[in-house]
Amino acid sequence: MEHRLNVCVCLDTDMSSVRIEVRGCVSMRNYKALLRLLARTKGLAADAQISLDLREADHLDSDVQNALGYTELGELADSSQPIRPAQPAAA
Ligand SMILES: [Zn+2]
Questions:
Q1: Interval between CA 66 and ligand 1 midpoint (Å)
Q2: Which residue of 2, 20, 37, 51 has the fewest CB atoms within a 10 Å radius of its CB?
Q3: What is the CA(88)–ligand 1 centre distance, in A?
C-alpha cells in the first residue's frame, strides 16, 4: 500500500490566515516536504497565521508525531493551536 501525502492549502481572502489541511499519510519521508510547504506558505503570506490541520490525516508516523510534539493522534484532533514553521535562528 502506498502512503501518500495530500495537502490542501486554504487561504483567507485577506491573507490573514492560512489553513493547511493534511490528508493521506504523513511519514518521516514526506514530513520534510510538509515542512517545505509550510516554509513556502510562510513566504507567500508572511503575516498570516498558519495552522496545520491534521484531523483528516489517515495516519501519522510516530516519528512525525514526536517531531510535531504530539504523543497521541487524539490530541491532534483536539488541537486548535496553530503550528508555526520553524524560524531560522536570529543572527
Ligand atoms: Zn498510510
A1: 17
A2: 2
A3: 31
pLDDT in tens, 4-51: 999 999 998 988 898 889 999 999 889 888 888 888 888 888 888 888
Expressed in angstroms and rounded, the spacing between residue 59 Cα and the centre of ligand 1 is 6
Q: Sorting pLDDT into bands at 50, 70 and 90, what band is 79? A: very low
Torsion of CA 35, 40, 43, 44, to 10 degrees: -130
Q: What is the CB neighbour count within 10 angstroms for residue 66? A: 12
Cα separation, 42 vs 49, in Å, equals 9
Domains delineated in the chain: 5-78 (3.30.750.24)
* Polymer length in residues for the chain: 91
